[in-house]
Amino acid sequence: DIQMTQSPSSLSASVGDRVTITCRASQSISSHLNWYEQEPGKAPKLLIYVASSLQSGVPSRFSGSGSGTDFTLTINSLQPEDFVTYYCQQSYSTPHTFGQGTKLEIK
Amino acid sequence: QVQLVESGGGVVQPGRSLRLSCAASGFSFSNYVMHWVRQAPGKGLEWVAVIWHDGGNKYYADSVKGRFTISRDNSKNTLYLQMNSLRVEDTAVFYCAREIPSGSFSWFDPWGQGTLVTVSS
Fold first, then answer.
1. Rounded to an integer, what distance in angstroms lies between the CA atom of residue A72 and that of residue B2?
2. Per-residue pLDDT reduced to its tens digit, B15-48
């Protein structure tokens, strides 16, 4: 199985900051990498697919990059609603494993 | 609109069984691969199982293999997860999710709201 490692596991930032979350795959997955956000008590929601494509309706302050084994999710100008948990997921092979999550907290 | 609604969760004793359902609406259910993903309290997301659009192929996480069975009834637009020999460590919110394909790529969208399964004596 492909292991996905996210870092950091938690991150403190302020409204207006720019943050970057990284995700590393245990083997090359090309661009088969998706990002989801999850509010407490709610279902995950798709943010970015195929490493860098923004899901419809997602604000342009979100961006994704990377290929192979190393990927990043960048959020520019953090808004109050962005302080949730983010997960990466590889869809290169079954099982479609997730990273352990990154909780973004208000400083 | 596209919607997935899970049901069937509850409190069950270790060793017992439970069947989850996921009712799909707003799209051609029979055309899509479907997944179950779970989340233990305070933990991350764990992929559980997948079923091909026609039910012809099924795959499971090692943690549930031999105990859980994924199935679907395309005539009822419903996905199922039969869970047998439940363990305390199976306690989680279970989500169903639709897989969107694009060439060799895919992603999950949407997800259902989840149903909580609590395994406790």
1. 29
2. 999 999 999 999 999 999 999 999 999 999 999 9
